[in-house]
Hints:
Elements: H1 6-18, H2 27-49, H3 63-80, H4 85-99
Amino acid sequence: MAEKTIKQVQQEVDAYISQFKEGYFSPLAMLARLTEELGELAGEVNHYYGEKPKKKTEKEKTIEEELGDLLFVLICFANSLHIDLQEAHDSVMEKFRTRDEHRWTRKDGNE
Protein backbone atom coordinates (compact mmCIF):
# COMPACT_ATOMS: atom_id res chain seq x y z
CA MET A 1 0.00 0.00 0.00
CA ALA A 2 1.34 3.43 -0.92
CA GLU A 3 2.29 5.81 1.85
CA LYS A 4 -0.03 8.75 2.46
CA THR A 5 0.71 12.22 3.68
CA ILE A 6 -1.19 13.62 6.65
CA LYS A 7 -3.02 15.92 4.23
CA GLN A 8 -4.07 12.93 2.10
CA VAL A 9 -5.31 11.08 5.18
CA GLN A 10 -7.33 14.12 6.25
CA GLN A 11 -8.78 14.38 2.73
CA GLU A 12 -9.63 10.67 2.70
CA VAL A 13 -11.50 10.94 6.00
CA ASP A 14 -13.25 14.10 4.81
CA ALA A 15 -14.37 12.37 1.59
CA TYR A 16 -15.77 9.50 3.66
CA ILE A 17 -17.62 11.73 6.14
CA SER A 18 -18.88 14.10 3.40
CA GLN A 19 -21.00 11.38 1.83
CA PHE A 20 -23.35 11.45 4.85
CA LYS A 21 -25.95 14.16 5.51
CA GLU A 22 -25.05 14.20 9.22
CA GLY A 23 -21.44 15.21 8.52
CA TYR A 24 -19.07 15.73 11.41
CA PHE A 25 -20.28 15.66 15.01
CA SER A 26 -20.13 18.82 17.11
CA PRO A 27 -16.81 19.57 18.86
CA LEU A 28 -18.19 18.47 22.23
CA ALA A 29 -19.51 15.19 20.80
CA MET A 30 -16.20 14.69 19.01
CA LEU A 31 -14.32 15.16 22.27
CA ALA A 32 -16.59 12.60 23.91
CA ARG A 33 -15.88 10.15 21.06
CA LEU A 34 -12.16 10.79 21.38
CA THR A 35 -12.35 10.11 25.11
CA GLU A 36 -14.34 6.93 24.50
CA GLU A 37 -11.78 5.64 21.99
CA LEU A 38 -8.91 6.53 24.33
CA GLY A 39 -10.63 4.50 27.05
CA GLU A 40 -10.89 1.52 24.71
CA LEU A 41 -7.18 1.84 23.90
CA ALA A 42 -6.39 2.01 27.62
CA GLY A 43 -8.39 -1.18 28.17
CA GLU A 44 -6.47 -3.02 25.46
CA VAL A 45 -3.10 -1.85 26.79
CA ASN A 46 -4.18 -2.99 30.26
CA HIS A 47 -5.17 -6.41 28.90
CA TYR A 48 -1.85 -6.92 27.12
CA TYR A 49 0.56 -5.23 29.52
CA GLY A 50 -1.33 -4.69 32.75
CA GLU A 51 -2.85 -6.76 35.48
CA LYS A 52 -6.32 -7.14 33.96
CA PRO A 53 -6.55 -10.13 31.60
CA LYS A 54 -9.45 -10.33 29.18
CA LYS A 55 -12.55 -12.26 30.15
CA LYS A 56 -13.31 -15.22 27.91
CA THR A 57 -16.50 -13.45 26.81
CA GLU A 58 -14.70 -10.27 25.72
CA LYS A 59 -14.13 -9.67 22.01
CA GLU A 60 -10.51 -9.91 20.90
CA LYS A 61 -9.25 -6.51 19.74
CA THR A 62 -5.78 -5.24 19.14
CA ILE A 63 -3.92 -2.16 20.22
CA GLU A 64 -3.39 -1.41 16.53
CA GLU A 65 -7.16 -1.46 15.94
CA GLU A 66 -7.80 0.85 18.87
CA LEU A 67 -5.04 3.24 17.78
CA GLY A 68 -6.65 3.30 14.33
CA ASP A 69 -10.02 4.15 15.82
CA LEU A 70 -8.47 6.90 17.92
CA LEU A 71 -6.62 8.30 14.90
CA PHE A 72 -9.80 8.32 12.80
CA VAL A 73 -11.71 10.29 15.44
CA LEU A 74 -8.78 12.66 15.95
CA ILE A 75 -8.70 13.34 12.21
CA CYS A 76 -12.47 13.89 12.19
CA PHE A 77 -12.08 16.32 15.09
CA ALA A 78 -9.33 18.26 13.29
CA ASN A 79 -11.26 18.30 10.02
CA SER A 80 -14.43 19.53 11.71
CA LEU A 81 -12.48 22.49 13.11
CA HIS A 82 -10.55 23.07 9.85
CA ILE A 83 -7.22 22.28 11.50
CA ASP A 84 -4.36 21.19 9.27
CA LEU A 85 -2.71 18.38 11.22
CA GLN A 86 0.56 18.75 9.30
CA GLU A 87 0.80 22.37 10.47
CA ALA A 88 -0.17 21.33 14.00
CA HIS A 89 2.51 18.62 13.96
CA ASP A 90 5.18 20.96 12.60
CA SER A 91 4.33 23.53 15.26
CA VAL A 92 4.51 21.09 18.15
CA MET A 93 7.78 19.56 16.88
CA GLU A 94 9.33 23.03 16.77
CA LYS A 95 8.12 23.62 20.32
CA PHE A 96 9.71 20.36 21.52
CA ARG A 97 12.96 21.08 19.62
CA THR A 98 13.34 24.47 21.29
CA ARG A 99 11.65 24.21 24.69
CA ASP A 100 12.94 20.71 25.48
CA GLU A 101 16.26 20.97 23.67
CA HIS A 102 18.27 20.11 26.81
CA ARG A 103 15.62 18.25 28.78
CA TRP A 104 16.53 14.67 27.84
CA THR A 105 19.81 12.78 27.61
CA ARG A 106 20.69 12.24 23.97
CA LYS A 107 21.85 8.80 22.82
CA ASP A 108 24.87 10.25 21.03
CA GLY A 109 26.07 11.80 24.31
CA ASN A 110 25.57 15.40 23.18
CA GLU A 111 23.90 17.55 25.78
